[in-house]
Design brief:
N-(1-d-carboxylethyl)-l-norvaline Dehydrogenase, domain 2, binds ketopantoate, alpha/beta, 10 helices, 299 residues, 4-stranded mixed β-sheet
């Protein structure tokens, strides 16, 4: 049995996969709990057809004693959620932290000193257009790794990867997370500030910012013993810009809908690491300040 925290777009997508694969699951709803959710796929295939999900919920106060406790949340919700559900969480249950951006891993390890922990990030695209509807816009890949090992990593990996295949497992998940952070540090704030789809970032006026943001992150990564070059980060980022040219980034959508963005866990994380390691990060700081300013307009 799997427990899924929250019925956001990715939470519903996970539940849909469980329904499809006949895997027993429960959702702990954090907002409304509709009895039916209408799921649409932008790219249809025999496995990806419009479907009605009939979600199975558990009470917010029920104990969490399943095979995996999956937290498909915004990065800034991860620590508060662990604090909230810790009292009812069996210390043997592995957590799967599934999010964009970075969270403070030391804090997580302290909060749950016994539970095994997977960190994962996915490039599946999904958004919730209403409480009882979810659009799955992209079938992507998932990257995962262990922050704290379990007694049987392969068993738990096997369970999780059925839900968001293909799933690549990494010995050094930090490398992967930092590389994803570098992509998000460029695409998310720039598309939100300039109100553009991802593909527009290929235009020359954005080049110098992309270079500067990537250079700062490459310096930080090298300080952390995660070898990389600025060029690698820039070409990684431009490959995603091209691949997702027509998409609007998650931060663009958050700003358009006047929702809290993940900027503190993206550019904010880069800047705080810069302060810690005495690496100057003016390009990332400038993006951070611009998004903070946009957020204050709608608060
Ligand atoms: O992860 C993304 C996001 O929108 O948050 C990218 C990779 C930028 C794709 O849009």
């Amino acid at each position: 049995m799997l427990t899924i925290l929250g019925n956001g777009a990715i939470g519903n997508l996970l539940a849909l996969q469980c329904q499809h694969l006949q895997i027993d699951y429960r959702i702990i709803a954090r907002s409304e709990s509709p009895t039916e959710i209408h799921c649409q796929f932008s790219q249809q295939s025999p496995q990806h057809q419009a479907t009605v999900l009939q979600p199975v919920y558990q009470q917010v106060t029920d104990s969490i004693d399943s095979d995996l406790f999956i937290l498909p949340l915004k990065a800034y919700q991860i620590i508060p959620a662990i604090q909230q559900y810790k009292p009812q969480l069996n210390p043997k249950v592995p957590l799967v932290l599934l999010h964009n951006g970075m969270v403070d891993h030391q804090h997580v390890l302290q909060l749950v000193p016994d539970n095994p922990i997977i960190i994962a990030t996915t490039s599946y695209g999904a958004f919730k257009h209403q409480a009882d509807g979810v659009n799955i816009t992209g079938i992507g890949a998932t990257q995962g790794g262990w922050l704290r090992n379990s007694e049987d990593n392969l068993y738990f990996q096997g369970l999780f990867e059925r839900l968001l295949p293909p799933c690549n497992w990494h010995e050094d998940i930090l490398q992967v997370l930092w590389r994803k952070l570098a992509v998000n540090s460029v695409i998310n704030p720039l598309t939100a500030i300039h109100n553009i789809p991802n593909g527009k970032l290929a235009e020359p006026q954005y080049r110098s910012t992309i270079m500067a943001v990537s250079a700062e992150i490459a310096t930080l990564m090298n300080r952390l013993d995660l070898p990389v070059t600025q060029n690698e980060l820039v070409s990684n980022c431009m490959a995603i810009v091209e691949k997702t040219a027509a998409n609007y980034s998650s931060m663009h959508q958050d700003v358009q809908h006047k929702r809290q963005t993940e900027i503190e866990n993206i550019s904010g994380y880069v800047v705080s690491q810069g302060e810690k390691l005495s690496v100057s990060t003016p390009a990332n700081s400038s993006l951070l300040e611009q998004i903070r300013k946009i957020e204050t307009y709608y608060k």
